């Protein structure tokens, strides 16, 4: 099951897909730390919503720290109104 989430970052809106270890069949280089993500490691794939060319595989913690640096804004559809 592929679970995609939309995240808004200061540089654009990203689609984020979480990859489970079992569906990770080859190693990728993480742009966050420039290290390899070994096979069978749960990680995530993120790309700009309208530009698949920006698709990159990230270690989950690297993506999270990137989000912090860029002040991630969660898009919440069912936010309670006060
Ligand atoms: Zn990394």
Question: How would you characterize this protein structure?
Answer:
- This protein is mainly beta.
- The protein has one helix spanning 60-69; strands spanning 4-9, 12-19, 28-29, 36-37, 43-48, 51-58, 73-74.
- It has one domain.
- Strands 6-5-2-1-7 form a five-stranded antiparallel sheet, covered by helices on one side.
- A hairpin with a 2-residue loop joins strand 5 (43-48) and strand 6.
- The longest helix is centred in the C-terminal third of the chain and has 10 residues, at 60-69.
- The chain is globular, with a radius of gyration of 13 Å.
- The protein binds zinc ion.
Strand order of the largest sheet: 6-5-2-1-7
Tally of separate helices:
1
Structural class: mainly beta
Strand % is 35-45%
Provide a compact summary of the structure.
The protein has 82 residues and is mainly β.
Q: Topology, pairings included?
A:
Elements: E1 4-9, E2 12-19, E3 28-29, E4 36-37, E5 43-48, E6 51-58, H1 60-69, E7 73-74
Antiparallel strand pairs: 1-2, 1-7, 2-5, 3-4, 5-6
Zinc ion binds at residues 30, 32-33, 35, 59, 62.
Keywords:
single chain, 82 residues, mainly beta, five-stranded antiparallel beta sheet, globular, binds zinc ion
């Amino acid at each position: 099951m592929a679970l995609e989430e939309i995240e808004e970052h200061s540089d654009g809106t990203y689609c984020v897909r979480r990859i489970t270890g079992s569906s990770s069949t080859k190693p990728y280089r993480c742009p966050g730390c420039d290290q390899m993500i070994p096979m069978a490691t749960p990680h995530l794939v993120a790309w700009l919503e309208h530009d698949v060319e920006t698709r990159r595989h990230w270690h989950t913690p690297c993506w999270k720290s990137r989000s912090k640096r860029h002040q991630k804004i969660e898009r919440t559809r069912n936010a309670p109104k006060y």
